[in-house]
Amino acid sequence: MGSGPGTHGTTTRLAPFGTTIFTTISQRAAARNAINLGQGFPDEDPPQALIEASIASLQAGHNQYAPMSGIPELRQAIANDQARRGRERWHPDHEVTVTSGATGALAAALLGTLEHDDEVILFDPAYDAYPALVAMAGAHARRLAPPAPGFRITRDLIEKAITPRTRMIVLNSPWNPTGRVLDDQELADVSDCCIKHDLICVSDEVYERLVFTRPHRSIGSMPGMRDRTIVISSMGKTYSCTGWKIGWACATGTLTSAIRAAHQFLVFSVPVPLQKAATRALNDYGTDWDLSLSASYGTRRDLLLEGLTSAGLEPIAPEGTYFILADITGLGDDDDHAFCDRMLETVGIAAIPSSVFTEGGLGMKSMVRFAFCKPQALIQEALDRLSRLTPRIRGDVR
Ligand SMILES: Cc1ncc(COP(=O)(O)O)c(C=O)c1O
After folding, report:
1. What Cα–Cα distance (Å) separates residue 188 from each residue in 183, 193, 195?
2. What is the CA radius of gyration of the chain?
3. What pLDDT is stored for residue 8 in this prediction?
4. Which helix (H) or strand (E) holds 120?
5. CA-to-CA distance for 178 and 153, rounded, in angstroms?
6. From the CA of 95, how far away is ligand 1's center (Å)?
7. Nearest residue by C-alpha to atom 16 in ligand 1
8. Fewer CB within 10 Å, N or C, the chain?
9. Which pLDDT belongs to residue 332?
10. Distance between CA atoms of 166 and 198, rounded to whole angstroms?
11. How is domain 64-285 classified at the architecture level of CATH?
């Protein structure tokens, strides 16, 4: 029996997305006891003080529903943190919403603002949740592909894709998986297009503190963009607690009402003890934390870059995030899925085929994404193993 409306199967809107590659690869890595440089979760724990803050909150009896929009002290801490880092000033009561991770914020933002048949511009390679959420909202993704290896976003590229139904641009800087940190010219181009065509910009900034070459700048702070931008971020990447799923969305009152209209029926509210710990993190772990985070990831970035190059791959040096895209053709491969299978099976390293981030899985077949949010020793071990991966001989179908 087929699946679809009326047959109790997955809705036709979601069926094309299948199971996320991150789940599949992590399961295969665990089964094979491989080093997992696929899914982007850090191996280390968050600071002990944050763990203690959540335990203390549980013991103090904070065990019932939080306010729908988030506990007041966390909304205040998010607003203060944005202001401290020179971003927009958001009112904690009317302009900040605490969500179930950045994913929850993205879902609420898209479901709360999009009409059926609206068009949403995405930039490939795109984080896999974006097209799925666009589909869940009954809208259509218009996927643009800035050319590798620069992945520059230009006004020209965007203008060509705009139609009367275009309603939103989803931006991700620092950008997973390219590692790009968008520069002022790109932010100005996107802003101009949003203002000219009256578009909403959803700005996913979960890697905002993980930068190596230039500071991240939020598009919400560009002239004329405050009223039309939804700034999204979360705790997971910054404080090594991806499992906590505490995120947030900052936007003006009208957009925040739309976000909350969806958020209240998606999850209603998120766990109080983890919101208490998030408050502690944002209040107590500021500039020094950010600097040490970037320094620590910078060392691992350089180690992986050098090792990938020595192994015969051609990596693109990331400006931010904890991912590196590498071209695999130097090892005789031109199919990213086949390369990832071969690498997993022969030397026990898991990575993500980059075509999964492109429309229909058809683009970027010659690149693979490696994560370096792992201990240095583990990255080194992966590189030792990778050096044993022999170039594929033409006709070899392993
Ligand atoms: C670009 C991007 N956005 C959002 C998320 C999800 O964030 P969260 O775990 O806070 O939902 C991720 C996680 O990998 C990501 O890479």
Report:
1. 9, 9, 10
2. 21
3. 80
4. strand 119-123
5. 12
6. 21
7. 176
8. N
9. 93
10. 9
11. 3-Layer(aba) Sandwich (3.40)
| Pocket mutation for ligand 1, best pick of 26, 171, 237 (most atoms within 8 Å of C-beta) | 237
- Tell me how far the alpha carbon of residue 45 lies from the centroid of ligand 1, in angstroms: 18
Q: Give the chain's residues under pLDDT 70.
A: 1-7, 394-398
Q: Is 298 helix (H, G, I), strand (E, B) or coil?
A: helix
Q: Which of 176, 233, 323, 325 to mutate to test the pocket of ligand 1 (most atoms within 8 A of CB)?
A: 176
Torsion of CA 92, 41, 206, 162, to 10 degrees: -130
Report the atom number in ligand 1 closest to the C-alpha of 172.
Answer: 1
**Cβ atoms of 268 and 65 closer than 8 Å:** yes
324 lines ligand 1 (CB under 6 A): no
The first and second tokens of residue 338, run together, are: 């086949």
Domain locations in the chain?
A: 15-39+288-386, 64-285
Mark out the alpha helices in the chain (DSSP H runs). 21-32, 48-59, 72-84, 101-113, 129-136, 155-161, 184-196, 253-266, 272-284, 287-310, 336-347, 376-386
Residue 106 CA: nearest ligand 1 atom is: 4
Output the CA–CA distances (angstroms, integers) from residue 235 to 50, 198, 270, in the order listed.
11, 31, 13
User: Is the CB of residue 178 below 6 angstroms from any atom belonging to ligand 1?
Assistant: no
How far away, in angstroms, is 2 Cα from ligand 1 center?
32
CA dihedral 134, 109, 210, 153 (to 10 degrees): 50
- Predicted TM-score (pTM) of the model is 0.95
Contact 57, 63 (CB under 8 A): no
Q: Coil, helix or strand for 171? A: strand
The CATH class of the 15-39+288-386 domain is alpha beta
At 139 the three-state DSSP class reads coil
CB-based burial label for 162 (10 Å; 0-12, 13-18, 19+): middle
- 172 CB under 6 A from ligand 1? yes
What are the φ/ψ torsions at residue 27 (nearest 5 degrees)? -65, -45
Closest atom of ligand 1 to CA, residue 236: 10
What tokens does 288 get?
């020094």
Question: 41 in helix, strand or coil?
Answer: coil
Residue 102: CB within 6 Å of ligand 1?
yes
CA distance 79 to 255: 16
Closest Cα to residue 209, out of 282, 275, 269, 279?
Answer: 282
